[in-house]
Amino acid sequence: MKKKREAKKDVRPWKVIKTEPVSDHRIFKIRRDTLRSPRTGVEHPFVVLEGGDWVNVIALTAAKEVVLVRQFRFGIRATTLEIPGGMVDAGESPATAAARELLEETGYAGAKPVFLGRIHPNPAIQSNVTHTFLIRNAKKVSEGHQEGTEDIRAFTKPLASITRLIKRGEITHALVVVAFSWFGISAARTMR
Q: Which residues have a Cβ under 8 Å from the Cβ of 80 and sit 6 or more positions away?
């Protein structure tokens, strides 16, 4: 039986013809790129959202509860159930950002962040990466310090309830679902 060639090897990079900034919106900059298809030779315009990297934090208490947050999300104009997270500041490591975001949004702190995985949130239009970390032994140490655009309520739920919350559609944020997928992959690796 012949092995199939990986599709990745069959797809060539597109040549960048032109890049120009369009606008700056604090958390994203918009740029317009013109690229040439290596297959057809035709040039096409694309819009790219340039953003800094993000972090997501699965914080577990000693009692195996997950620190969750409820907050209003402007894109869907609704309140969502999520895990703490946010942007990696310039010059900051993703692990440092994970610990900082957990503390700022919830007032919780814990053990050294453990890297679980990284993804590209939407590589079709975004340039950034989301890093997921696990912080064990999380405990409430302060009231937190939310930004002016945040109105967050932090609380805990048993780890065993997370799958049910996702299945019932109570957790709908794609990056949060992926974070718990990374957590599950990590747990499966340690059980081998």
A: 70, 71, 72, 73, 171, 172, 173
